[in-house]
Amino acid sequence: MKFKSLLLKFLIWRVKHVSTTNFVIFTSGIIGIIAGLAAVSLKESVHVIQNFLTRDFQQEFGNYLYLSYPLIGIILTLLLSKYILKEKLGHGITDILYTISKKSSIVKRTKTFSRMLTSSLTVGFGGSVGLEAPIVVTGSAIGSNIGRLVHLNYKQRTLLIGCGSAGAISAIFNSPIAGVIFSIEVILAEVTINTFIPLLIASVCGALVSLTLLGDDVLFSFNLTDDFVAADTPFYIFLGIFTGLVALYFTRVVSKVEGLIHNVKGDLNRAILGGVALGFLVFILPPLYGEGYDTITKLLEGNAQNILNNSLFFDEIESFFLIVLFAAGIILVKPVATALTIGAGGSGGIFAPSLFLGGVTGFLFAYLVNKLGITAPISLSNFTLVGMSGVMSGVLHAPLTAIFLIAEITSGYTLFVPLMIVSAISYSTISYFEKYSMYTKPLVEKGDLIYHDKDRQVLSLIDLKKVIETDLLTIDPDATLGELVDLVRFSKRNIFPVVNQDKELMGIVTLDDIREIMFDEESRKNIIVNTLMHTPPTNVTGKENMRSVMMKFEKTGAWNLPVLEDGKYVGFVSKSRIFNAYRKKLIRQQIE
């Protein structure tokens, strides 16, 4: 109670002395700091777990514990999420986008820490996913809940969600520009100068926290050793196409494998099946363990022969064909490993897998070009880095984020031109086949997320169940016209649903249908309602989105349509009622 009293006094003082714009800027800095602390905590906790589990592994031998670690991690994650946190995991950024679109940007308080706990177990024990999506969810939850605490409205809460995600990405990679761009490209739909400033403040604060606590020990970094050679441009163009196709492969395989594992009944059964399969893949290909940044570092440093340390089959690979074979194997299997981790109940995201896959793709491309000897040798490290940008651009549909992220983690803009070429071509390539990213596609298909269409955005905010009209008087199909006329005297509507004893809609009768005979005594006695009724042009269900409902209105030309739920009559929905709700939503958005 004392806290609430102090908070109330502060908020009253704030309203009197601090403008909302300045208060949001100040709040964004606080959110950036807290998100930065969360990112540092998550990164360190995962590395502590991984080092503890693998510190005694000998590089020259296969390590059979790889078979069990992912299974243990997924089961622990499942138990924690289901029985203690009581949260359903999955693609966290998709959940945040749904929250912004459908839940007024109100993120559950438990998400300020839940994804940190679950992802540290999943990734620490070798789950083949990344930490970026969980920390974005954490930062977004921090922004949303602080916004609620200080009584900010929907648009301001949404902005603070963006600030939380910007601060988190900035801290985990020490890349403040990429943090801002990610928030703009992936999280927020509309950005103005007034919203841009808080994003900058939050991102800078997140980066400062990371620099203060970790110095240069960020999630992934590399200092460039080779310059960009303009003569390599044709190869970068081909790499852009290649990474776009790899991004498409990753997107399709992850969706397919997740769908297959979700068909397995029972959470524990899915966890066991996915964990066992993932453990087997990691045992065969150790680079699939965890995020995979160590493997990328080896490739960048020219130590490709060491990518299968801890493997059962090889200590060091020196054969050209074996290196190509295993690099290709990693590219083919990584999406399966990622999908198994998430689909089985693990916690993590596709951000790091896309970077990992891009790095291996870029390396393999340059390695093949050099071995073929068709030109002067090209830089393995440069193509590895630019490949990361290409696949990430395609998978996330975020080319600007990919460009600035790689530019920042390499501490310079030497590769800016090839990054732009490859990211743009990769994005264009995958966009030809997949219009939306993995984050947005399921939401767009359900009508829960709409871009660049203000009318549809406002309509999507209307809950169909709240505009259903239940005041229409129903009539039995075996009733007489006289009984129907008696209803007309009391009804304020001119539509009468014909409903049987099982609550099933048999048809409808309108006032126009009976106007000419309703005063005829003989007709009122002898005519039965089921001979007067007609079938409505179509019906809707309470679970339909507003886009589907409006399309039915447009196709039929009707102004009123019946609503059925499991075949039972519920009520009617009218176009005029929807338009009235639309007008109120639009006015409210303009006020906010």
From TrEMBL:
Single Gene Ontology MF annotation: chloride channel activity
The protein's name: Chloride channel protein
CDD domains xref list: Voltage_gated_ClC (cd00400)
Top-level taxon of the source organism: Bacteria
UniProt domain CBS: residue ranges: 468-524, 533-591
UniProt-listed InterPro entries: CBS_dom (IPR000644), CBS_dom_sf (IPR046342), Cl-channel_core (IPR014743), ClC (IPR001807), ClC-type_chloride_channel (IPR050368)
Its membrane topology: Multi-pass membrane protein
Alphabetized Gene3D superfamilies for the sequence: CBS-domain, Clc chloride channel
Localisation per UniProt entry: Membrane
CC terms in the record's Gene Ontology section: chloride channel complex
Entry's transmembrane regions: 21-41, 61-80, 158-184, 196-214, 235-251, 271-289, 320-344, 350-370, 382-407, 413-433
Keywords annotated in UniProt: CBS domain, Chloride, Chloride channel, Ion channel, Ion transport, Membrane, Transmembrane, Transmembrane helix, Transport
PROSITE patterns from the UniProt entry: CBS (PS51371)
Upper taxonomic lineage: Bacteria, Pseudomonadati, Bacteroidota, Cytophagia, Cytophagales
Main localisation: membrane
Protein species of origin: Marivirga arenosa
